[in-house]
Amino acid sequence: MYEEAARLIKNSKRTVAFTGAGISVESGIPPFRGKNGLWNKYDPATFEISYFLGNTEKSWEVMREIFYELFGKVKPNSAHTALAELEGQNLMHAVITQNVDNLHTDAGSKNVYEFHGSLKKLVCLKCSAKTDVSDVDLNILPPRCTRSDLKERPGDGERHKAVLCNGVLKPDVVFFGESIPKHAYTKSFEEADKADLFILIGTTGEVAPANMIPRMAKRSGANIIEINTTESSYTDSITDIFLKGKATEVMENLMSAI
Q1: pLDDT at 113 over 60
Q2: Domain carrying residue 258
Q3: Into how many domains does the chain fold?
């Protein structure tokens, strides 16, 4: 199966990877669902946009603990770097990820569509400006926008000192109750429509609407390689080659076969 998968990758004209939580588990990021999932420790309601708006400081305390103290220490693993290497060899066209950890970009992948956003950016709920999280002091919660703009004095048209926005910042990720970013949504489904090979890594296919992307790829004629530790909702329905195992081990074996 590794030889057949390698042959498909080498002969493909447009290969796209579609990744889920399973690829980042080996970097130290726990999944949200399942036996050791974050939802067993934290209430998922904390990540609803309505809760965030009504309990901003409490929500930020949890997010700081999970996203920026826990996730902030992790590094890409060999599965992430393998995908970046394939892109460098012109054997990988794009990566679509459901993850918000930015590890694909950190590993060197250039053409990445973050379907659920990225923790590396914060967005202002007042002016919509985006800020690198590294430029924000998360010791003070909730963090606020430091963007400033010149305003005109009422009546005389003269400009005065810049006015600070001071709006609340939110991680630039999709909370429950929010829509998928338009660009990521559109490009992800476009890639699914155009690809002739889709490589699924560490995704169960349970989260909508992301779970429709591989199915669209299959309907459009793509071959499907699935890499997972257990069978998923895709395995018996759209998968052509199932490579069972951890993402790092399977990708290392696959790179050797290529």
Answers
A1: yes
A2: 1-28+74-116+179-258
A3: 1
pLDDT value of position 161? 65
More confident residue, 20 or 148: 20
Active site residue 93: no
In a domain, 90, yes or no: yes
Give the DSSP H or E segment for 18. Answer: strand 15-19
Here the CATH number for the domain that contains residue 256 is 3.40.50.1220
Q: Which helix (H) or strand (E) holds 218?
A: helix 212-219
DSSP assignment of 143-169: -B---EE--BPTTT--B-SPEE--PBE
Give the whole-angstrom CA distance, residue 223 versus residue 150. Answer: 54
Pairing state of beta strands 112-114 and 117-124? Answer: unpaired
Q: What is the Cα–Cα distance from 113 to 57, expressed in whole angstroms?
A: 30
> Exactly one of 80, 93, 104, 116 is catalytic; which is it?
116
Asked if the structure places residue 229 within a domain, the reply is yes
What confidence score (pLDDT) does residue 151 get? 59
- Whether 169 shows a pLDDT value over 80: the answer reads yes
Structure tokens at 216: 């669209």
DSSP type of residue 67: I
Q: What is the CA radius of gyration of the chain?
A: 21
